[in-house]
Amino acid sequence: MTIDARLAELGIVLPEPAAPVAAYVPTVEINGLLHISGQLPFREDGSLVTGRLGEDVGVAAGMEAARRCGIMLIAQIKAALGGDLSRVERIVKLGAFISSTASFTDQPKVANGASELMQAVFGDAGRHARSAVGVPVLPLGAAVEVDAIVAVRPL
Question: CA 121: distance to chain centroid?
Fold first, then answer.
């Protein structure tokens, strides 16, 4: 089954990749690795999931926000690879940044929203190393931000 077919089976429609909000590019491919800049959690209607875990966002909503970041990561991957998701060899690493209070300690659970998505979409190639870090604030007030490193097959 192709990755596009798997996305359809999961009911996932990829959005247009988000444009950078500052002086950087969304992706850089070098030596077989695709580095994807941090992606924010945009809902299907284009609105941004904002707030802080442990304050006004619960774990389940945080996991969904991380999943939305993962969907945007896949959209960026697809765009960077000219629409060919079959070039993805492996999701190597995700970095999850969770806007949270000092007492919130469930960052790994929140990050699972993105991790579980990658495994559902890419199968064993979606299993990856990961960091899950609590931070006091993220760009635009986002609840979660996730970046990635992906091993890609050459053209």
Answer: 12
